[in-house]
Specification:
By secondary structure, the chain is of the alpha/beta class. The chain has helices spanning about 50-60, 80-95, 105-110, 115-125, 140-145, 150-160, 180-195, 210-215, 225-240, 265-280; strands at about 20, 25, 45, 70, 100-105, 125-135, 165-175, 200-205, 245-250, 260-265. It contains ten helices and ten strands. Helix 7 packs parallel to helix 9.
């Protein structure tokens, strides 16, 4: 139906959504752990508004019913407010049955917009943003060249909340390597406690194209924690989390241990599951290596 510049990525929860490619690639694209947009054809550029309108009309006349739309690629929120407003208005005009529009989001792209602008976008349907905070520890963020800090991430999450938008935050299990594992977990919990996001998920960092860039950032050698190390880090994270009603998921295919629930209601149960994975792994269901993926 629509022509995409491949590869296209989306959050797992958007599997039934119409993917509307309003940008190509990522405007930052310097994170040393990420290879999602490094292919030559994924050089960042904004899609022209007339092409976006053509795609929306094509979806509207396809005979399919879409309730949700995900704005791709990795950096749609870098678009100016006026462009995002125009896209949301086109969606309302041609696809009035859509109940939710969502997007990936870098914190810096929120800090360049006012609460009033974000509230306007929310009123037009753009109500959920997936924020790759990755870590709440400034040393880890600096080493992986995220271009963000604890403070910039928290400011963005607070601004979303003030505008009435929902936030879904991603933390990368293992991102600090063995050397910075504990401070990565503690710092990430501290950020989440301050922000109280609506959704929180953990993914295990992976390097399908190799980890040379990470090695360069970690004094020549980045060592990813083994399975037990990842569980120990997850235990540290959960123990330090003090959340009120955040929906928590570690069900992405990269995870060995699947956790689903609400924090803090299910905190004790999560801790028991993680401890079982550490000391009695035969008693619980863990993903095998062949079952894991990006």
């Amino acid at each position: 139906m629509l022509n995409y510049i491949e590869p296209v990525f989306r959050p797992p929860s958007e599997w039934q959504s119409l993917i509307l490619q309003v940008t190509n690639g990522c405007s930052w694209n310097h994170c040393r752990f990420c290879d999602m947009y490094t292919a030559p054809q994924k050089k960042f550029r904004a899609q022209k508004l007339d092409k976006i309108e053509q795609d929306i009309i094509a979806a509207a006349t396809s005979g399919q019913t879409f309730r949700r739309i995900f704005l791709a690629d990795g950096d749609a929120m870098t678009l100016p407010f006026k462009r995002l407003e125009a896209i949301c208005l086109l969606i309302k005009e041609h696809l009035p049955q859509v109940t939710r529009v969502s997007s990936y989001c870098l914190p810096r792209n929120i800090n360049n917009k006012t609460v009033e602008e974000l509230a306007c976008l929310k009123a037009l349907g753009l109500s959920l943003l997936y924020v790759g905070c990755e870590s709440g520890d400034d040393e880890v963020l600096q080493r992986v060249n995220k271009g963000e800090t604890f403070d910039s991430s928290l400011a963005a999450l607070n601004k979303m909340k003030a505008a009435g938008m929902k936030s879904s935050v991603m933390i990368l299990n293992g991102l600090g390597g063995v050397a910075l594992s504990e401070q990565h977990a503690v710092g990430s919990a501290k950020l989440m406690n301050a922000a109280q996001p609506d959704y929180l998920s953990t993914l295990v960092v992976s390097f399908p194209l190799g980890k040379q860039r990470m090695d360069d950032s970690f004094e020549g050698s980045f060592k990813l924690p083994d399975q037990q190390g990842l569980f120990t880090e997850m235990l540290c994270l959960v123990e330090h989390l003090e959340l009120n009603k955040t929906i928590f998921r570690s069900d992405h295919a990269s995870n060995y241990l699947v956790l689903k629930g609400v924090l803090g209601k299910d905190k004790v149960a999560f801790i028991e599951q993680i401890k079982a994975a550490l000391v009695r792994p035969e008693t619980i269901s863990l993903r095998q290596e062949w079952q894991r993926g990006l």
